[in-house]
Amino acid sequence: MNPARNLTSNIGRRSFLQLASGAAIAATSLRPGWAADEPLRMGSILSVTGPAAFLGEDMKAGLQLAVDEINAGGGINGRKIAWTFYDAESQTQKALSATRRLISQDKVELIVSGGNMSGIALAMAPMAESAGIPFISSEGALAIVTPVTERKWVFKSTVDDEDVLERIADYLAKKSIKKVALIADTSGFGQGAVTQMKTVGPRRNLDVSYESFDPADTDMMPQLTRIRDGGAEAIICWTVTPAGVVFLKQAQLLGLDSRTLIHSYGFVSSHYMTLAGDAAKPLLLASLKFPVGDQLPDSDPLKAGILRLFRSYQERFNRAASLYAAESYDAAMLAKQALGKVGGDVSRLPEGMEQIKGFAGMSGVFNFSADRHSGLSKADIVLINWRDGRFNLADYE
To answer: Can you give the pLDDT at residue 141?
Structure first.
Protein backbone atom coordinates (compact mmCIF):
# COMPACT_ATOMS: atom_id res chain seq x y z
CA MET A 1 0.00 0.00 0.00
CA ASN A 2 1.26 3.46 -0.87
CA PRO A 3 -0.49 5.97 1.42
CA ALA A 4 0.67 8.94 -0.60
CA ARG A 5 0.54 11.13 2.49
CA ASN A 6 2.62 13.94 1.07
CA LEU A 7 0.70 14.59 -2.12
CA THR A 8 0.63 18.19 -3.23
CA SER A 9 -2.29 19.56 -5.18
CA ASN A 10 -3.52 22.58 -7.04
CA ILE A 11 -6.90 22.26 -5.36
CA GLY A 12 -7.04 24.90 -2.63
CA ARG A 13 -8.37 24.16 0.85
CA ARG A 14 -8.72 26.19 4.00
CA SER A 15 -6.03 25.62 6.61
CA PHE A 16 -6.99 24.01 9.90
CA LEU A 17 -6.78 27.42 11.59
CA GLN A 18 -9.51 28.58 9.24
CA LEU A 19 -11.52 25.46 10.04
CA ALA A 20 -11.19 26.13 13.73
CA SER A 21 -12.37 29.67 13.35
CA GLY A 22 -15.24 28.57 11.14
CA ALA A 23 -14.22 30.88 8.27
CA ALA A 24 -15.68 30.10 4.86
CA ILE A 25 -15.90 26.41 5.69
CA ALA A 26 -18.80 25.42 3.48
CA ALA A 27 -17.72 27.18 0.30
CA THR A 28 -17.22 23.89 -1.55
CA SER A 29 -18.78 25.26 -4.73
CA LEU A 30 -15.79 27.61 -5.07
CA ARG A 31 -13.22 24.82 -5.31
CA PRO A 32 -11.34 24.83 -8.63
CA GLY A 33 -11.81 21.95 -11.04
CA TRP A 34 -9.53 18.94 -11.05
CA ALA A 35 -7.42 17.50 -13.81
CA ALA A 36 -8.43 14.12 -15.21
CA ASP A 37 -5.05 12.60 -14.30
CA GLU A 38 -4.97 13.99 -10.76
CA PRO A 39 -5.42 11.31 -8.07
CA LEU A 40 -8.52 11.35 -5.90
CA ARG A 41 -7.27 11.90 -2.35
CA MET A 42 -9.17 9.63 0.04
CA GLY A 43 -8.43 9.38 3.76
CA SER A 44 -9.39 6.71 6.27
CA ILE A 45 -9.10 6.38 10.02
CA LEU A 46 -9.41 2.95 11.62
CA SER A 47 -8.20 1.39 14.85
CA VAL A 48 -5.76 -1.40 14.07
CA THR A 49 -4.30 -1.32 17.58
CA GLY A 50 -6.01 -1.11 20.95
CA PRO A 51 -9.23 -2.87 22.06
CA ALA A 52 -10.97 -2.46 18.68
CA ALA A 53 -8.02 -3.76 16.65
CA PHE A 54 -9.68 -7.01 15.57
CA LEU A 55 -12.34 -4.94 13.79
CA GLY A 56 -9.90 -2.43 12.40
CA GLU A 57 -7.58 -4.95 10.76
CA ASP A 58 -10.46 -6.49 8.81
CA MET A 59 -11.92 -3.10 7.88
CA LYS A 60 -8.54 -1.86 6.70
CA ALA A 61 -8.19 -4.97 4.54
CA GLY A 62 -11.68 -4.45 3.11
CA LEU A 63 -10.78 -0.87 2.17
CA GLN A 64 -7.47 -1.93 0.68
CA LEU A 65 -9.22 -4.48 -1.50
CA ALA A 66 -11.82 -1.96 -2.64
CA VAL A 67 -9.21 0.72 -3.45
CA ASP A 68 -7.11 -1.76 -5.41
CA GLU A 69 -10.13 -3.01 -7.35
CA ILE A 70 -11.26 0.53 -8.18
CA ASN A 71 -7.78 1.56 -9.31
CA ALA A 72 -7.32 -1.60 -11.36
CA GLY A 73 -10.56 -0.72 -13.12
CA GLY A 74 -9.34 2.74 -14.07
CA GLY A 75 -10.30 4.64 -10.95
CA ILE A 76 -13.36 6.82 -10.43
CA ASN A 77 -14.17 8.83 -13.53
CA GLY A 78 -10.60 8.26 -14.65
CA ARG A 79 -9.01 9.31 -11.34
CA LYS A 80 -7.02 6.72 -9.40
CA ILE A 81 -7.42 6.79 -5.62
CA ALA A 82 -4.45 7.97 -3.53
CA TRP A 83 -5.26 6.53 -0.13
CA THR A 84 -4.02 7.92 3.19
CA PHE A 85 -4.58 5.78 6.28
CA TYR A 86 -4.08 6.55 9.98
CA ASP A 87 -4.42 4.31 13.03
CA ALA A 88 -6.64 5.82 15.75
CA GLU A 89 -5.39 3.21 18.26
CA SER A 90 -8.99 2.91 19.55
CA GLN A 91 -8.67 6.43 21.02
CA THR A 92 -11.02 9.27 20.13
CA GLN A 93 -8.48 12.06 20.64
CA LYS A 94 -5.94 10.39 18.38
CA ALA A 95 -8.67 9.94 15.77
CA LEU A 96 -9.54 13.63 15.95
CA SER A 97 -5.89 14.61 15.57
CA ALA A 98 -5.66 12.35 12.54
CA THR A 99 -8.84 13.86 11.11
CA ARG A 100 -7.35 17.35 11.41
CA ARG A 101 -4.25 16.10 9.63
CA LEU A 102 -6.30 14.55 6.82
CA ILE A 103 -8.12 17.84 6.31
CA SER A 104 -5.37 20.41 6.77
CA GLN A 105 -2.18 18.63 5.69
CA ASP A 106 -3.17 15.72 3.45
CA LYS A 107 -5.97 17.78 1.92
CA VAL A 108 -8.16 14.74 1.34
CA GLU A 109 -11.29 15.15 -0.76
CA LEU A 110 -13.31 12.52 1.08
CA ILE A 111 -13.04 10.41 4.23
CA VAL A 112 -14.11 6.76 4.29
CA SER A 113 -14.43 4.96 7.65
CA GLY A 114 -14.29 6.50 11.10
CA GLY A 115 -12.20 4.57 13.58
CA ASN A 116 -14.33 1.37 13.58
CA MET A 117 -15.95 2.67 16.78
CA SER A 118 -19.19 4.64 16.83
CA GLY A 119 -17.87 7.03 19.47
CA ILE A 120 -14.97 7.96 17.20
CA ALA A 121 -17.17 8.39 14.13
CA LEU A 122 -19.58 10.54 16.15
CA ALA A 123 -16.69 12.84 17.06
CA MET A 124 -15.35 12.95 13.50
CA ALA A 125 -18.68 13.72 11.81
CA PRO A 126 -18.96 17.40 12.87
CA MET A 127 -15.38 18.05 11.72
CA ALA A 128 -16.06 16.63 8.26
CA GLU A 129 -19.35 18.51 8.12
CA SER A 130 -17.73 21.83 9.03
CA ALA A 131 -15.01 21.31 6.43
CA GLY A 132 -17.52 20.36 3.73
CA ILE A 133 -15.72 17.07 3.15
CA PRO A 134 -17.79 13.95 2.39
CA PHE A 135 -17.53 11.36 5.16
CA ILE A 136 -18.82 7.83 4.56
CA SER A 137 -18.75 6.12 7.94
CA SER A 138 -18.55 2.36 8.32
CA GLU A 139 -19.61 2.61 11.97
CA GLY A 140 -23.03 1.84 13.40
CA ALA A 141 -24.74 4.46 15.57
CA LEU A 142 -27.67 6.23 13.94
CA ALA A 143 -26.59 9.53 15.51
CA ILE A 144 -23.59 9.62 13.17
CA VAL A 145 -25.90 10.70 10.34
CA THR A 146 -28.74 12.39 12.22
CA PRO A 147 -30.27 14.85 12.15
CA VAL A 148 -29.73 14.89 8.40
CA THR A 149 -30.16 18.69 8.33
CA GLU A 150 -26.89 18.86 10.29
CA ARG A 151 -25.18 16.04 8.39
CA LYS A 152 -25.34 17.05 4.74
CA TRP A 153 -21.87 15.63 4.11
CA VAL A 154 -22.09 12.50 6.28
CA PHE A 155 -23.38 9.04 5.27
CA LYS A 156 -22.87 5.52 6.52
CA SER A 157 -22.52 2.04 5.06
CA THR A 158 -23.95 0.16 8.04
CA VAL A 159 -27.43 -0.63 9.25
CA ASP A 160 -29.16 1.57 11.85
CA ASP A 161 -29.39 0.26 15.40
CA GLU A 162 -33.12 1.07 15.32
CA ASP A 163 -33.62 -1.34 12.40
CA VAL A 164 -31.58 -4.03 14.17
CA LEU A 165 -33.77 -3.69 17.25
CA GLU A 166 -36.90 -3.83 15.09
CA ARG A 167 -35.64 -7.05 13.50
CA ILE A 168 -34.98 -8.52 16.93
CA ALA A 169 -38.47 -7.42 17.98
CA ASP A 170 -39.91 -9.34 15.02
CA TYR A 171 -38.19 -12.49 16.27
CA LEU A 172 -39.35 -11.92 19.85
CA ALA A 173 -42.92 -11.47 18.64
CA LYS A 174 -42.69 -14.77 16.75
CA LYS A 175 -41.63 -16.44 20.02
CA SER A 176 -44.28 -14.54 22.08
CA ILE A 177 -41.56 -12.96 24.24
CA LYS A 178 -42.45 -9.65 25.88
CA LYS A 179 -40.11 -9.26 28.87
CA VAL A 180 -36.66 -8.21 27.68
CA ALA A 181 -33.40 -6.93 29.17
CA LEU A 182 -30.92 -4.80 27.21
CA ILE A 183 -27.41 -4.80 28.63
CA ALA A 184 -25.27 -2.33 26.70
CA ASP A 185 -21.78 -0.96 27.14
CA THR A 186 -21.19 2.71 27.91
CA SER A 187 -19.63 3.52 24.53
CA GLY A 188 -21.35 5.54 21.82
CA PHE A 189 -22.30 2.25 20.14
CA GLY A 190 -23.91 0.78 23.25
CA GLN A 191 -25.69 3.90 24.41
CA GLY A 192 -26.97 4.58 20.91
CA ALA A 193 -28.82 1.27 21.16
CA VAL A 194 -30.25 2.25 24.55
CA THR A 195 -31.61 5.46 23.05
CA GLN A 196 -33.21 3.61 20.16
CA MET A 197 -34.63 0.82 22.34
CA LYS A 198 -36.47 3.43 24.40
CA THR A 199 -38.40 4.16 21.20
CA VAL A 200 -38.61 0.65 19.75
CA GLY A 201 -39.56 -1.07 23.03
CA PRO A 202 -42.81 0.83 23.69
CA ARG A 203 -43.68 0.77 19.98
CA ARG A 204 -43.40 -3.03 19.97
CA ASN A 205 -45.09 -3.50 23.36
CA LEU A 206 -41.94 -4.84 24.98
CA ASP A 207 -41.30 -4.61 28.72
CA VAL A 208 -37.63 -3.61 28.72
CA SER A 209 -35.19 -3.32 31.61
CA TYR A 210 -31.75 -1.76 31.16
CA GLU A 211 -28.28 -2.52 32.48
CA SER A 212 -24.90 -1.09 31.47
CA PHE A 213 -21.25 -2.06 31.72
CA ASP A 214 -17.87 -0.55 30.94
CA PRO A 215 -16.29 -1.90 27.73
CA ALA A 216 -13.30 -3.07 29.81
CA ASP A 217 -15.39 -4.87 32.45
CA THR A 218 -14.50 -8.44 33.37
CA ASP A 219 -17.35 -9.00 35.83
CA MET A 220 -21.04 -8.61 34.99
CA MET A 221 -22.44 -10.84 37.71
CA PRO A 222 -24.26 -7.99 39.52
CA GLN A 223 -26.04 -6.86 36.34
CA LEU A 224 -26.82 -10.40 35.22
CA THR A 225 -28.12 -11.35 38.66
CA ARG A 226 -30.55 -8.43 38.54
CA ILE A 227 -31.63 -9.50 35.06
CA ARG A 228 -32.14 -13.09 36.24
CA ASP A 229 -34.16 -12.00 39.24
CA GLY A 230 -36.18 -9.59 37.10
CA GLY A 231 -37.49 -12.46 34.99
CA ALA A 232 -36.41 -11.29 31.54
CA GLU A 233 -37.16 -13.97 28.95
CA ALA A 234 -34.68 -12.56 26.44
CA ILE A 235 -31.40 -10.74 27.05
CA ILE A 236 -29.85 -8.54 24.36
CA CYS A 237 -26.18 -7.57 24.73
CA TRP A 238 -24.78 -4.60 22.79
CA THR A 239 -21.01 -4.23 22.49
CA VAL A 240 -18.09 -4.76 20.12
CA THR A 241 -15.63 -5.46 22.94
CA PRO A 242 -14.39 -8.68 24.62
CA ALA A 243 -16.78 -7.87 27.47
CA GLY A 244 -19.40 -9.57 25.30
CA VAL A 245 -17.60 -12.86 25.91
CA VAL A 246 -17.75 -12.20 29.66
CA PHE A 247 -21.51 -11.68 29.25
CA LEU A 248 -21.92 -15.10 27.61
CA LYS A 249 -19.78 -17.02 30.07
CA GLN A 250 -21.32 -15.46 33.17
CA ALA A 251 -24.83 -15.80 31.78
CA GLN A 252 -24.09 -19.50 31.45
CA LEU A 253 -22.88 -19.67 35.08
CA LEU A 254 -26.17 -18.14 36.23
CA GLY A 255 -28.27 -20.49 34.14
CA LEU A 256 -29.38 -17.71 31.81
CA ASP A 257 -28.35 -19.73 28.77
CA SER A 258 -31.76 -21.38 29.01
CA ARG A 259 -33.29 -18.04 28.03
CA THR A 260 -33.01 -16.27 24.67
CA LEU A 261 -29.59 -14.64 24.37
CA ILE A 262 -28.95 -12.20 21.53
CA HIS A 263 -25.90 -10.21 20.52
CA SER A 264 -25.99 -7.34 18.03
CA TYR A 265 -24.20 -7.13 14.68
CA GLY A 266 -21.20 -5.56 16.40
CA PHE A 267 -20.29 -8.94 17.87
CA VAL A 268 -20.34 -11.08 14.72
CA SER A 269 -16.77 -12.29 15.15
CA SER A 270 -15.48 -15.85 14.84
CA HIS A 271 -12.71 -14.87 17.27
CA TYR A 272 -15.27 -14.00 19.95
CA MET A 273 -17.25 -17.16 19.29
CA THR A 274 -14.13 -19.26 19.76
CA LEU A 275 -13.30 -17.46 23.01
CA ALA A 276 -16.84 -18.03 24.31
CA GLY A 277 -16.72 -21.77 23.58
CA ASP A 278 -19.78 -23.67 24.77
CA ALA A 279 -21.28 -20.45 26.13
CA ALA A 280 -21.90 -19.35 22.52
CA LYS A 281 -24.08 -22.36 21.67
CA PRO A 282 -27.46 -20.82 22.61
CA LEU A 283 -26.59 -17.42 21.16
CA LEU A 284 -28.39 -15.68 18.32
CA LEU A 285 -26.80 -12.71 16.57
CA ALA A 286 -28.65 -10.01 14.64
CA SER A 287 -26.39 -9.66 11.62
CA LEU A 288 -26.18 -8.45 8.08
CA LYS A 289 -26.19 -11.28 5.54
CA PHE A 290 -22.51 -11.29 4.60
CA PRO A 291 -21.23 -13.97 7.06
CA VAL A 292 -23.83 -16.46 5.78
CA GLY A 293 -23.75 -15.41 2.13
CA ASP A 294 -23.18 -18.95 0.89
CA GLN A 295 -26.33 -20.10 2.70
CA LEU A 296 -28.60 -17.50 1.10
CA PRO A 297 -31.01 -18.66 -1.60
CA ASP A 298 -29.74 -18.13 -5.13
CA SER A 299 -32.51 -15.57 -5.61
CA ASP A 300 -31.00 -13.24 -3.01
CA PRO A 301 -29.46 -10.23 -4.83
CA LEU A 302 -26.43 -10.20 -2.55
CA LYS A 303 -25.32 -13.80 -2.90
CA ALA A 304 -23.21 -13.61 -6.07
CA GLY A 305 -21.31 -10.52 -4.90
CA ILE A 306 -20.68 -11.97 -1.46
CA LEU A 307 -19.26 -15.19 -2.91
CA ARG A 308 -16.98 -13.16 -5.17
CA LEU A 309 -15.68 -11.15 -2.20
CA PHE A 310 -15.22 -14.34 -0.19
CA ARG A 311 -12.87 -15.61 -2.91
CA SER A 312 -10.94 -12.43 -3.61
CA TYR A 313 -10.43 -11.65 0.09
CA GLN A 314 -9.21 -15.19 0.84
CA GLU A 315 -6.79 -15.07 -2.08
CA ARG A 316 -5.45 -11.65 -1.09
CA PHE A 317 -5.19 -11.98 2.69
CA ASN A 318 -5.19 -15.74 3.24
CA ARG A 319 -8.05 -15.57 5.72
CA ALA A 320 -11.83 -15.52 5.62
CA ALA A 321 -13.55 -12.18 5.11
CA SER A 322 -15.58 -10.85 8.02
CA LEU A 323 -18.68 -8.68 8.15
CA TYR A 324 -16.50 -5.70 9.07
CA ALA A 325 -14.36 -6.06 5.94
CA ALA A 326 -17.60 -6.03 3.94
CA GLU A 327 -18.80 -2.83 5.63
CA SER A 328 -15.65 -0.86 4.79
CA TYR A 329 -15.51 -2.35 1.28
CA ASP A 330 -19.09 -1.14 0.78
CA ALA A 331 -18.20 2.34 2.02
CA ALA A 332 -15.55 2.76 -0.69
CA MET A 333 -17.81 1.29 -3.38
CA LEU A 334 -20.61 3.65 -2.37
CA ALA A 335 -18.26 6.58 -2.93
CA LYS A 336 -17.53 5.20 -6.41
CA GLN A 337 -21.24 4.83 -7.16
CA ALA A 338 -22.04 8.34 -5.93
CA LEU A 339 -19.27 10.04 -7.84
CA GLY A 340 -20.25 8.18 -10.98
CA LYS A 341 -23.67 9.82 -10.75
CA VAL A 342 -22.29 13.37 -10.56
CA GLY A 343 -19.50 13.20 -13.11
CA GLY A 344 -16.79 12.73 -10.49
CA ASP A 345 -17.46 16.11 -8.87
CA VAL A 346 -16.60 15.56 -5.19
CA SER A 347 -18.39 18.77 -4.20
CA ARG A 348 -21.60 17.05 -5.41
CA LEU A 349 -20.94 13.70 -3.74
CA PRO A 350 -23.85 14.13 -1.26
CA GLU A 351 -26.16 14.62 -4.24
CA GLY A 352 -24.78 11.45 -5.81
CA MET A 353 -25.20 9.47 -2.59
CA GLU A 354 -28.81 10.56 -2.27
CA GLN A 355 -29.45 9.22 -5.78
CA ILE A 356 -28.27 5.68 -4.96
CA LYS A 357 -31.23 3.29 -5.16
CA GLY A 358 -31.24 -0.49 -5.20
CA PHE A 359 -27.45 -0.85 -5.12
CA ALA A 360 -26.62 -4.43 -4.06
CA GLY A 361 -23.48 -4.20 -1.95
CA MET A 362 -21.92 -6.78 0.35
CA SER A 363 -23.85 -5.74 3.47
CA GLY A 364 -27.25 -5.21 1.88
CA VAL A 365 -29.24 -3.34 -0.74
CA PHE A 366 -28.56 0.39 -0.39
CA ASN A 367 -31.20 3.09 -0.82
CA PHE A 368 -30.35 6.65 0.20
CA SER A 369 -32.41 9.82 0.01
CA ALA A 370 -32.27 13.48 0.98
CA ASP A 371 -33.74 12.66 4.38
CA ARG A 372 -32.02 9.31 4.99
CA HIS A 373 -28.22 9.06 4.97
CA SER A 374 -27.97 5.43 6.05
CA GLY A 375 -28.90 3.20 3.15
CA LEU A 376 -29.73 -0.18 4.68
CA SER A 377 -33.01 -1.37 6.21
CA LYS A 378 -34.50 -4.05 8.43
CA ALA A 379 -34.83 -6.28 5.37
CA ASP A 380 -31.02 -6.57 5.26
CA ILE A 381 -30.82 -8.13 8.73
CA VAL A 382 -30.95 -11.84 9.53
CA LEU A 383 -30.51 -13.86 12.71
CA ILE A 384 -27.55 -16.22 12.74
CA ASN A 385 -25.90 -18.63 15.17
CA TRP A 386 -22.51 -20.29 15.62
CA ARG A 387 -22.31 -24.01 14.82
CA ASP A 388 -19.52 -26.28 13.59
CA GLY A 389 -16.94 -23.52 13.61
CA ARG A 390 -18.87 -21.06 11.44
CA PHE A 391 -21.86 -18.72 11.37
CA ASN A 392 -25.09 -20.21 10.12
CA LEU A 393 -28.41 -18.79 9.02
CA ALA A 394 -30.93 -19.22 11.85
CA ASP A 395 -33.86 -17.03 10.81
CA TYR A 396 -34.05 -15.67 7.25
CA GLU A 397 -37.62 -14.39 7.12
So the answer is: 84
